[in-house]
Amino acid sequence: MKRMLLAASAASLLGGFALTASPLEAQESEGFQLEIGGFYNALGIVRGQDSPARSLTDAGAGSGQRDKIRRYDFSQYGRFVIEGSQTLDNGMTLGFHTEYEMQDGMANDRAYVFGEGGFGRLQFGTMYSAAYLLHVSPPTAGWGIDDTDHDEAFASINGMGYPASPPYFVNRSMNITYLTPRISGFQAGVTFAPDQQNRENMDNRVTTNLSRQNDLGRRGAEIDRDLQNIFGLGINYETSFEELSLAVSAGVETGKWNHGAKESLAGDDKRAWSASSGLYLGFGDLEAGVAYNWTNGGMSSFRQHTLTAGLTYTIDRFTFGPSFGNTWERGSNSDDRSIQIYEFGTTYAFAPGVNLVGSLQHARYDNGDLSSRFDGNGTAGLFGVQLSF
Predict the structure, then answer these.
(1) What is the b/e burial string over 240-256, where b = at least 16 CB atoms within 10 angstroms of the residue's CB?
(2) Contact 10, 133 (CB under 8 A)
(3) What whole-number distance in Å separates Cα of residue 70 and Cα of residue 51?
(4) N or C: fewer beta carbons within 10 Å in the chain?
(5) Domain extent listing, the chain
(6) Is the pLDDT reported for residue 194 higher than 80?
């Protein structure tokens, strides 16, 4: 199923690289060739969970005001991908890639140009970072926990979202990324982004003293801030021997806060760091993986940790297995909270490009020492169809 989710996505985007040098001059080619693809998911959700308090004030005052939770829901998500490329007579490939996200409607989500050859691959535009593309995530047999497209099974009780192990400082940001060829199983990459913005609002990109909304999970004061001068590094290693396959990854991203964020975070680190790693093992029809992410959120008194794991087994058309995700935070003033999500999923390959997918998930929310009214549990079932084309 979703074996090495991010690494597999990176492999499909990056393709293979020739290791021989080629002349730099461009020669006559056959022009751009277009490829169209994507996926679409549609599912229904049934849930039972504790209702969260509406605010920290409500919870602390004992007013008992809580949001009502709907016991059922529908969800959809998909991507429509168009890629064009041409290979020159010297072996170099030039192309463009664009993705349209299908959820509430259809909107452009990723767009970049690229060139690749024996030197590796160079990309420019709005896209993920090298650390993200080379990250190895655990396998899942259901709708997934780590970096999932469907994280709406529960209404968060303590404000924390689904655990996600990939680095996210560069996400839909204008950036330039270089990825090396894969040599002896190793591939590395580097990314630079001026800030976390795309081209939607030029004023927000060139005015460095604006405070932009990017709350990295710290609860309490709603601090608007934006990272600038973001650098990212990533590396992974893949190998296989008979029925055994192995993949390992590591990545780091860092950036400095803009002027407005520096003022609101006076006395803190001012530089945000995020580090991630992943491990995947496959043996025949059995797959297993674990991943970890750490970030300081650019604050001296804050640390967030995420651990995810998954195990799958395939028999004929069925793939099934458990997944687990845990995110916990440590901050000042006993501002500690956590979320754990457990999943058991099953996928049935109904037809080429058509999967029937079901998941049973259980979530536990802990709000640390601040207020037990933000503690709680939930259980949900997610059942639907997954189309790929």
Answers:
(1) eeeeebbbbbbbbbbbe
(2) yes
(3) 10
(4) C
(5) 5-15+116-388
(6) yes
pLDDT digits (tens, 9 = 90+) for 5-44: 343 444 344 443 333 333 344 444 468 899 999 999 999 9
Tell me how crowded residue 318 is: count the other CB atoms within 10 A of its CB.
12
Phi, psi of 300 (to 5 degrees): -65, -25
Helices (H) and strands (E) in the chain, counts: 5, 16
Q: What is the DSSP letter of 300?
A: T
Residue with tokens 């022009």: 31
Distance CA 288, CA 281 (A): 5
Using only the alpha carbons of the chain, give its radius of gyration.
22
Q: Is 292 exposed, middle or buried (0-12, 13-18, 19+ CB in 10 A)?
A: middle
Residue 264, both tokens: 């609101």
Q: How far apart are CA 298 and CA 229, in angstroms?
A: 14
**What is the identity of the amino acid at 54?**
R
Q: How many CB atoms lie within 10 A of CB 200?
A: 9
Asked if 295 contacts 272 with a C-beta cutoff of 8 angstroms, the reply is yes
The matching CATH number, chosen from 3.30.2270.10, 3.40.120.10, 2.40.128.20, 2.40.160.10, for 5-15+116-388 is 2.40.160.10
Place of tokens 């407005």: 260
In this prediction, residue 268 carries a pLDDT of 55
